Amino acid sequence: MSTRKYQSDVNFIQALSELLRSNDLTEIEVIREFGENDSLNVRVARQMAAAPAQVVQAAAPAPAAAPAQAAAPAPAAAPADTGGDPADHPGAVTSPMVGTAYLQPEPGSPAFIKVGDQIEEGQTLLIIEAMKTMNQIPAPRGGKVARILVEDGSPVEFGAPLVILE
Description:
Elements: H1 2-22, E1 27-35, E2 38-46, E3 53-57, H2 65-71, E4 92-94, E5 99-102, E6 118-119, E7 124-130, E8 133-138, E9 143-148, E10 155-156, E11 161-165
Antiparallel strand pairs: 1-2, 2-3, 4-11, 5-7, 5-10, 6-9, 7-8, 9-11
């Protein structure tokens, strides 16, 4: 029974990984409940630098989750962040969603902001396209644009730093 359940878990994780690739997603997290005190928690994520899909065990409260962790590649490369993380900067404006960042309203038009611009609270900093919807990202406060941390057309993750305001 445990071998069959193990193979079922591996097949499920492989299906999630394929779903991630085929829909150009960056992360999927699923909890499968098998019964009381028996569940499988799986988070499949893809790194931004064109790395292959990575399977990571989110939590292991149930015995069924252990085989999934054994099937996962070692996440040794995951904590690649260094001490100078721009997300820790007090003036960082982070992404409220996963999507594609655009620095201008349409191709060929001027960018919303550039380094050195003085901006006001509520002014559009950039657009993030998510699920074919263009979402304007407003400045949470006024200030001077110190750094723009994303490139036009680049994918962004939830919580990723976009702009540094001073």
